[in-house]
Structures are given as structure tokens and as C-alpha cells.
Design a protein that fits this description.
With about 270 residues, this protein is an alpha/beta fold. About 35% of the residues lie in helices and about 20% in strands. The strands form 2 sheets. The chain has an 8-stranded mixed β-sheet, with helices on both faces.
Length: about 270
């Protein structure tokens, strides 16, 4: 088990001075914490553990910032406690990051599996991204699919070759993301009511506003271990939580997002280009 002290690893190899790394981990999930500690230690990456919000036993009727009616309309179903906990965990990390002096935040869920040194990759790519889009918000570096994107630059880190892209149709999953201070600030400032799981919300938000980016092929994947934050939520989503119009709501959501993404892709111009 990783002690409380070594959670901020002392090794500084490959650490970008202006980048903080955070790992979201449920209290008591010591094996998962040890596993990701070992992975990051192999790359010399220091990190801070953030205790995940456990929403599995939430009474959703008492959650003031959850909009069940809008969730039914947008998702075709209500949310479950694990999804609320995951969303709040990411809000918690963003708030913690903004209290630091760091310029960027690498946020990993504890099932993240880096295929190369993510800090080394970011050290190479972030200066380029700052030139392309000085007000970028969020990078998804753990996506498992990529659609409707504009290639920007290619990098080779530790045998892993990948391309930085403007992700007009922002990828799902939140196992590995990177915040700018502006992105984290807006995520918190614009938060009113939860109406979708956090990865669905990021797609909704960044597909409409732009300033979302990704790498492909993804430099971070996940283990086969099921998410403990979302434990038991899969079955709940597929039973009485779904409404009769679930499939229609999903198709409407996907079609609308893709249409917006195609329009943004056509209009996209990196900063400084003609």
C-alpha cells in the first residue's frame, strides 16, 4: 500500500515545472492506488492523490445541483449515484488545481494506464498548442475513439507516436485529461446543474464552444479493472432508469453534436494561420 507521504513522489524526472499531476482514487482502494503509483513512479512523475467523491449511496432527491428532469430529456434516462460522484470528483480536482500555482493539470483516474510518459509528451506538445490556441480548455489523452478532428502536430515519445488534434467532436472517457487554468475555471464557473455524466457533459460543452483537444492514437489507456466510482451504475442505467425514448434521445444527441462538430471543423483556423 502506498503511504500518505510518498503519494507526492519525490522523483522529478520528466516533470514539467508548470504541470501538476493528480490521481483520483476512492478511499480504501489501496491496490489501485499502489498500481498507478508504480506506473507513474516508473516515469518519475510526482502526483497528488485526490480522494474521489463516493456517490454510490447518494439519495439523488437531495442533490441540489442535479437536474433529473433535464437528464431525462438529454440522456433519455436519469443519472445514478456513481455518475454524480464521478462528476463531483472532477469538479473537486479542478477546484484544487486552481488553488495551486500550476499552469496545467494532468488528471488521471486510478485505472489509467500510460503507454508512454504523459508528462514528457505534454512538455513537447503544450508549447505548440499554446501557439495554435492560447485559450484552449481541455485535452483528452485517454480517449478510445476519435472522430471529426483536425490534425495539428505529431510527436514520438518513448516509442509511442501520436498526433495532437483539435477534437471538434470531443472524445468520451475521463481516465486521463489535461486542464488549462482557463478551462478549469470555466468548468467550475459555468457549473449549475448536472444533467449528464461528466464525459457526456465535456462532449456537450466543448463540441459547442471549441477549444477541446486530444491525441491519437491515445497515449493513455485503461486497465481492465472496472471503475469503483461507477460501480453498480451500469446495471442501474439499463433497467428502470431508462425512459421509453432513450434510443431517440441518444440518436438526437449524437446527430446534433456531430453536426456542430462538422461545422466547427470546417471553420477551424489555428491561431496565426491565414
Amino acid at each position: 500500500m502506498a503511504d500518505e507521504k510518498p503519494l507526492r513522489l519525490l522523483a522529478e524526472k520528466g516533470k514539467m515545472q508548470s504541470l501538476e499531476t493528480y490521481v483520483i482514487n476512492l478511499d480504501g482502494s489501496n491496490d489501485r492506488l499502489q498500481t498507478i503509483s508504480d506506473r507513474l513512479s516508473a516515469f518519475g512523475i510526482a502526483f497528488e492523490r485526490i480522494s474521489a467523491v463516493d456517490g454510490r449511496k447518494f439519495d439523488l432527491a437531495t442533490i441540489p445541483d442535479y437536474d433529473a428532469e433535464r437528464a431525462q430529456s438529454y440522456m433519455g434516462r436519469t443519472l445514478v449515484g456513481g455518475e454524480i460522484g464521478c462528476y463531483r470528483s472532477h469538479l473537486k480536482v479542478a477546484e484544487h488545481f486552481l488553488k495551486s500555482d500550476a499552469r496545467y493539470a494532468l488528471v488521471l483516474e486510478d485505472d489509467a494506464l500510460p503507454l508512454c510518459n504523459p508528462v514528457e509528451l505534454l512538455e513537447a506538445a503544450l508549447p505548440d498548442l499554446e501557439k495554435v490556441d492560447p485559450v484552449w480548455r481541455l485535452i483528452n489523452i485517454g480517449n478510445n475513439k476519435l472522430k471529426i478532428a483536425t490534425p495539428l502536430a505529431r510527436y514520438g515519445i518513448g516509442g509511442h507516436d501520436c498526433e495532437l488534434v483539435a477534437a471538434h467532436y470531443f472524445p468520451m472517457t475521463t481516465s486521463a485529461i489535461v486542464w488549462s487554468r482557463e478551462g478549469a475555471r470555466l468548468f467550475i464557473e459555468e457549473h449549475r446543474k448536472m444533467f449528464a455524466p461528466v464525459d457526456n457533459y465535456f462532449r456537450h460543452w466543448l463540441t459547442r464552444t471549441g477549444h477541446g483537444y486530444s491525441f491519437w492514437p491515445s497515449p493513455v489507456t485503461t486497465t481492465d479493472a472496472a471503475s469503483e466510482i461507477l460501480a453498480s451504475s451500469g446495471r442501474a442505467r439499463k433497467t428502470n432508469k431508462r425512459k421509453w425514448f432513450y434510443a431517440l434521445a441518444k440518436q438526437r444527441r449524437l446527430m446534433e453534436d456531430k453536426l456542430i462538430a462538422f461545422i466547427h471543423k470546417k471553420r477551424f483556423r489555428p491561431a496565426g494561420s491565414k
